[in-house]
What does this fold into?
Amino acid sequence: MNRGTMLKSFKPPHSGFINSDRYAANEEPSIDELMGDPIMDALLARDGLHRDLVHRCIDEARARLA
It folds into this structure.
C-alpha cells in the first residue's frame, strides 16, 4: 500500500473530541478545555512553555481588551 492510498483510506476514530456533536456546528472548545488536555502539556513543553504562563498571557490580553 502506498502513502496516497493510506491517506485516502484513513478514518479517524469515532469517539472523543473529533466527533463531538458540540463541535459539529463550528463551536470552539473553551481555553480551559484545551488547556486541560494532556496533549497540550506535551505541545507546550516542546515549545518551552507551561500552562501557567499561557494563562497569564491570556489574562493580560483580556485585561487590555476590557
Summary: The chain has a mean pLDDT of 78. The chain has one domain: 3-65.
